[in-house]
User: What shape does this take?
Amino acid sequence: MMYSTAPGCGDKYTGETELRIVLVGKGASGISATGNMILGEKVFESKISLQPITRKCSTGSRNWMGRKILVVDTPGLYSLTVPNEVISQEIRRCVSLSSPGPHAIILVQQLGRVTQEDKETFKLIKSIFGVKTTRYMIILFTRKEDLGHYTLHEYIPECDIELQRLITECGNRCCAFNNRAEGAEQDAQVSELIAVIDKMVQENGGSFYTNDTYRSRFLPRFTAKK
Assistant: This one.
């Protein structure tokens, strides 16, 4: 499923260049599993757990249709063991790991009831990345298999109103993954996501996410640590 998006500006991009993707979301929503699905192999540690497994940002890449796809896996918010402030600081590092900046910020959200923590996660993500976040954001629902005979288009109007509002802010860009899919189904899911990203990038004038405030305040610090 693909939707329209708002125009933007910035560095030019063609379908043959590197595509940089950052995955964010609440802990235990399937962030790492989604990254593995995109990469076509198990690069990021992922297992069933009530608590986030990922503690640090990490990257993986693959060749897809002659293009390099770079994926940044980030720790999930609302861990019982790590404060959100610490996690937020680590998530900010994803901009340097995807230098000069990600083309897409993918918010991973599990299908089903939207909790207060989910709603706070939406706000935190926008706070971390700034006012331009939604111009580069796509909502990716995990557990696509739970839709049954329904389509994502039919599911969205039944969602929590705040999630619907966020989807609207993101230009109605969303898709769904079954992270247990294999073979042709897996390839179809990745193809759909890449198509949504490509369309967004084109409508954004070929730009990728940058945050001047982030660069001036945080990037020199993280660069010095390397």
Remarks:
- The beta strands are 19-25, 58-64, 67-73, 104-110, 137-142, 174-177.
- The mean pLDDT is 85.
- The longest helix spans residues 183-203.
